Amino acid sequence: MASLQKIRNHGALLIAIVGLAMLAFILGDFLNSGSSFFNRSRENVGVVEGQKIHYTEYEAAKDQLTEVYKIESGRSDFDEDTHAQIRNQVWNMFVMDYTLRAQAEKIGMDITPDELTELCVGENIHQILRSRRAFMDENGQFNREAVKNLIAAINEGSDDAAQNANMQQAKTYWLYWEKAVRISYMQEKYTNLLQHLIKANSLDAEFAFNGRQNGVSAEYVMQPYFTVADSLVKVSESDIKALYKQHKEQFKQTPNRAIKYVAFDIVPSEDDFKAAETLLTNLQEEFRTAEDVSLVVNTNSDIMYDGRDYSEETVPAQFKEFAFAKGAKAGDCTDILFENNTYAMARIMQAGYSLPDSVELKAIVEDGEDQELGWFKAADLPKNIAEPALSGKRGEKFTVAMGMGEQTYEIMEIGKPTPKVKLAILAREVTPSSKTYSIIYNNAKQFVVNNNNAEALEAAAQEAGMAVIPQYNLTENTDKVGQLKASRPIVRWAFDAKEGAVSDVFECGQQFIVAALTEVNDGEYRPLEAVRAELNYEATNNAKAKYIIKQLKGVESLEAAAQIMGQQVQNVERVALSDSRFGNAGMEPAVIGATIAMGENALSEPIQGNMGVFMVKTGAANKLDGTFDAKSEEAQLASRYAYLPYQAMQLVEDKAEVTDNRANFQ
After folding, report:
1. pLDDT by residue (tens digit) across 440-489?
2. Angle at 44 (CA atoms; ends 41, 46), nearest 5 degrees
3. Around Cβ 474, how many Cβ atoms within 10 Å?
4. ∠ at Cα 62 (59, 66), nearest 5°?
5. Taking the model in full, what pTM does it have?
6. How far apart are CA 147 and CA 125, in angstroms?
7. In 3D, which of 497, 430, 74 has the Cα closest to residue 273?
């Protein structure tokens, strides 16, 4: 009971303690769940008009487009540039899709299922699908039935594992282009709407007509700015700052970096050349005499022996004369040759026979429509298809293994036989050994140790006669530095480093790269110092304009102005408001406008132009013959306005609320 009373006496304290414990538990749970929330937000590749693009969604879209590239190109070994192109194309598609959706939602515009069906399989199939080779017949003409057959096959599926895998690939291909059609048509609907909104009326037409018809003759004299010495004018810091403020919107930028780098080429040493030559020298006797030459070649050569048939077109150039020489026979062998950093020798395995160079094939499809594949050269076909195709006869069929299944082909036509030869080639390209690689890497590493800031790097490189290569405007999503292979890590480093820092050694293809970070630009606008030169040029011309105009104060004739300027009076037969150029002076819109506004037989005040200061004297007005036709004029204006909807669409994308986090994922 005493214990119970103690608990009662301290009840308030216990409640407080329990309350704090519960609060801690709740906060802990919230923070843990919040951590999951923030982790999820960090998994977003970007946000477009409020639509989050999750990493998995982005990766799935990349995989989808990669499959499309494989199908359309017939290749799967894409280089770095192609992968970068795929990434950028996927991102741009997301931006366009979500931007269009946001605009369409505001005005109640959409694409109905019936519209999309008509665009994909109807009578008016969209041009995107009509231009796909997958849907063309043997004559290169679009075949609507090919589209319908593909969709039907996708929907039916297959019990056969290999065919089902092919159908899944076909489905991926189709869904991509279906989405592309939807986005493209949405853009077309939007721009068509804008085209109907941006029209010329009768007042626009009349103004344009009069601006073209009414003109005036003129004489002028112009003093170019470059004729005034810079020493005669003064440009103040306030002038520069005023121009910067005036033009500031032109200097908007995406955060970017500038670097300079030096390259250490990874090239073979003299020892590497000697090692390759010695290897072939030691193997040449065995290569000449071995009964199983494939064992010697395939163990030591860069060119495997697979019994391929070489023609005069496909045989390596250095062996052409040897292989197709008169009297060439099996067993003949060359000496060791050296070309393009490669030591090589060849042995004839079979000669004096002929085979066709090309074949036309048809794929036989069970329970479906056979597909004519067209003509193929031997080099374009896998060996298991090339051999029976090129050794068979017209009309023959043959079956080859394809993955887990089989495919039957029919020989439609076969090319004319040409001389062939089988060659075994023992070749060894001279490449840097691990020892050479280490020496070059250590040299680059030591260069970093000795030169740990941008100034030291540049000075040391110049002293060593190494090129220092600048690279500007690297953004977070820049895929590579200039033409350097696999150089995305340099971009990541540049956005983590401090200005003036020198990087560690990067391996970029056949080069080691050491970079220095020379500029960090994170502001919304380019800083004044970055644009000072162009602003100074404009401010100097403005000052020169004031100087020239001051010299012309009180001048009452063109001749007097010409004398002061030291220039000749020139004639312009006709000046009209619709002109883009003023006589021989070029693009001078201010001068054209002032001339038209003066009327007949008038002398202008000095006019500040683009290239210099002008004085103009107008002559008689002149008017072109012609009758105002409102409809014709409006049609001409409409054609001139045709680009505006597309410019507006680009502006919509530029102004869209986009957060791009791709740099965190690549």
Report:
1. 999 999 999 999 999 999 999 999 999 999 999 999 999 999 999 999 99
2. 125
3. 23
4. 140
5. 0.74
6. 10
7. 430
